[in-house]
Amino acid sequence: MDDRPNYMTPAGYAALSAEYQQLLGDERPKLVDVISWAAGNGDRSENGDYIYGRKRLREIDRRLGFLARRMKAAKVIDPAAQPDRGRVWFGATVTIADPEDFSDTAERVLTLVGDDETDAAAGRIGWNAPIARALRGGRNRRRAPRHAPGRRAAI
Questions:
Q1: Is pLDDT at 147 greater than 60 in this prediction?
Q2: Distance CA 97, CA 141 (A)
Q3: Order of strands, sheet of 107-113, starting from the edge strand that comes earlier in the sequence
């Protein structure tokens, strides 16, 4: 993986852990039962339950391995415990505005979260995203350079 730390909020870690437990404790055992039943039915080469069950089992095992590695490398940080609330660090919620854009959508509220927690539609951007790297360490009312297609601007 990366040499960078895998920062995560407590909610993000809980979501990964819940997905891991759901796959390991619920979905995988049911699938193993289906595969076992299908294997007992005879010819496996033409048995769809067996073939697609094994394929889905490989996908689940691959996802479980990924989740286990991400949780092992996770460094859980509570954004509420950040000492300097005047600077943009992990977990900070910031409002950005393009000074050249006077439309109603000129301002956006973004929260810097772990890379496994991103959801751009909800305003949660990854800690290592380009715009997050431009904002990191900034203070209130700071202008940060931004490269937009066809122009260079500040946010």
A1: no
A2: 10
A3: 93-97, 107-113, 124-126
